[in-house]
Amino acid sequence: MEGEVSVSGGKNAAVAIIPAALLADSPSTIENIPDINDVHVIIEMLRWLGARVEFRDHTMWIDPRTVDRYNPPYELAGRMRASYYFAPVLLGVFGRAEVPLPGGCDIGARPIDQTVKGMCALGARVETLGGVVVAEADELIGDDIYLDMPSVGATVNSMLTAVSASGTTCIHNAAKEPHIVDLANFLSSMGAVVKGAGTDVIRIRGGRHLHGANYTVVPDQIETGTLMIAAAATAGDVLITGAIPTHMEALSAKLLEMGVSVTSEDDWIHVKSNGTFRSVNVKTQGYPGFPTDLQQPLSALLTVANGTSIVTETIFESRFRFLDELRKMGANVRVIESTAIISGVEKLVGARVNATDLRAGAAMMIAGLMADGVTEIGGIGYILRGYERFDEKLRSLGAKVETMHLTEVAF
Ligand code: EPZ
Fold first, then answer.
1. Residue 170 bears catalytic tag
2. pTM over 0.90
3. Which residues pair with residue 191 across a beta bridge?
4. What is the number of the ligand 1 atom nearest to the C-alpha of 317?
């Protein structure tokens, strides 16, 4: 592939920032929101709760003043992981929230015990009844929250609870992802006092009056990385614009190790490759380590690297199921517990495969771009959840890809 492509706004930032807008007493305007299915589900949830919402040209206007419900339905909440971000928000607004357990990619058990721990630490009573998280609090009071692991979701939910709690909350062992910092910046623009986002300890002085804000969402770190890997996979020469190179350092370092040329400045990243790759070892970590969401796309690329690569997935306990699909295309991979051993082959061969989750879908697209012959990917609804117009973006770079009946895409 050759040419220039721009990155959309961050999915995992937008799905945390949009619910936070309900904490204000006036409308917010949020720009650079990706036009993806998860965002459309959130819009349905906002309207169900009574908010007024407009969304066009990647800009969302939210008026929270007419919100009059605290119990979104399972039909909506069950369609994505981030739906439970509404629990701390509705708790802060109404003193009560009844939010179904979240959906999201099937990449592990994905419990919410750390979210419950954070909300309880600030005075909420939380229980799960029939698949619904019921939270209530007469008053939320700031305190220390010690997360057992740097959970992104629990950090978000603790932040969204803390801004409604009187006094100061310290979230220890917090996640440091770019979308955590973006949420902190949005909350600050609403009048909250949030310090330390991006470090292990986030301090929030809560109980303050929050007003609507104008905000622009950060570029999508994982879409940027997926485009970088796709460029390398096709022996390409691609300029990725509207990105934040510092968010990509773990992937850029890995691609350089593989022999891919990666240069960057300001808001662009240039990826060039001759189509041959050295094998490397990868271990997923929380930010700024190698992102688990890029493990699957990079593993697809490693199937044709020279030599054997070792990929260790430390974040989710079943994020290797997509390798079964890559085997259908000729990949030589073995999985031993949380480690995949990938022995490079000369070429992949196109086949009919399935996307088993969102980033697995991205991995299959990477594989399809490299394979000889046509690859048909079923279940691309996953891809549409998290990547905006991704087939169009790849086509604009010269890839041969078409989306049929929205159930499969052929390469
Ligand atoms: C967020 O999921 C992202 N989703 C995921 O992206 C991403 O893979 C993940 O963070 C890690 O970066 C959104 O932001 C909407 P975690 P989340 O809580 O919050 C365990 C994508 O493709 N854990 O950091 O669910 C958990 O089981 C998606 O965009 C607990 O044990 O991730 C997992 O093993 C996929 N108890 C690990 O921690 C808890 O209460 C990390 O989970 C919470 C998490």
1. no
2. yes
3. none
4. 34
